[in-house]
Amino acid sequence: MRNSQPERTALFIDGANLHGAARGLGIDIDYRKLLAYFENKTNLLRAYYYAALLETDEYSPLKPLTDWLAYNGYSLVTKPAKEFTDAQGRRRIKGNMDIELAIDMLELAPALDHAVLFSGDSDFRRLVEAMQRKGVRVSVVSTIRTSPPMIADELRRQADHFIDLADIAGAFVREPGEGRARAEREMEA
């Protein structure tokens, strides 16, 4: 990322994809630190986080994260996930956020110099190409250090800059017990 003059930047985080990459690398992301990392390096206009959520009576492990993100500087974009049974009788969940992410990125393009896409999904190759035609530089954050790699080769080639999550994660990895200690400090204040 360029430091001479802060670029007007937005983050577009495919939540499921980032979670998969982080899990593959064995890390837990601290989203407060992630936001601070990009705020310090760019003129961050917005940070979008995309997640499909199951709307059931049961507790969702994503709910605390999405609630926290919505109150702490992220523009949260959600939609209901669809639950179905496949041909083998297994319960499956489908919740693709590609269209929502693509529309938001294209709509924000006139206000951006730099878009940072957190995903390795090959479906985004054409989106990256469209953003580049609009004069927006696109960095893609994913990883090649998992087996198999979390990023599609065609997306990595299309990006102006590929950032391996493993190379920058040290700046925003949650240390064991760190979330609990922060919550206790905030309650005391």
What is this entry, summarized?
The protein has 189 residues and is an alpha/beta fold. 38% of the residues lie in helices and 25% in strands.
Essential attributes:
disordered C terminus, two-stranded antiparallel ribbon, alpha/beta, six-stranded parallel sheet, 189 residues, Rossmann fold, 25% strand
Describe this structure in words.
- The protein has 189 residues and is of the alpha/beta class.
- The chain has a domain of 128 residues: 5'-nuclease (Rossmann fold).
- Helix content is 38%, strand content 25%.
- The protein contains 8 helices and 8 strands.
- The strands form 2 sheets. Strands 3-2-1-6-7-8 form a 6-stranded parallel sheet, with helices on both faces.
- α3 links the parallel β2 and β3.
- The radius of gyration is 17 Å and the shape is globular.
- The N and C termini lie far apart (36 Å).
Approximately how much beta-strand content do the residues carry? 15-25%
Biggest sheet overview: 6 strands, parallel
Spans of at least 5 consecutive residues whose pLDDT stays below 50 are 180-187
Q: What percent of the residues sit in helical stretches (DSSP H or I)?
A: 25-40%
What is the CATH fold-level name of the domain at 8-42 and 96-188? Rossmann fold
What is the alpha-carbon Rg in Å? 17 Å
H/E element order:
EHHEHEEEHEHEHEHH
**In CATH terms, what is the architecture of the domain at 8-42 and 96-188?**
3-Layer(aba) Sandwich
Helix/strand class: alpha/beta
Side by side, the strands of the main sheet go 3-2-1-6-7-8
Mean pLDDT, all residues: 88
- Figure out the total of helices: 8
Q: What sort of overall outline do the alpha carbons produce when their principal axes are compared?
A: globular
CATH superfamily of the domain at 8-42 and 96-188: 5'-nuclease
Give the CATH class of the domain at 8-42 and 96-188: Alpha Beta
Total beta strand runs: 8
Distance between the ends = 36 Å
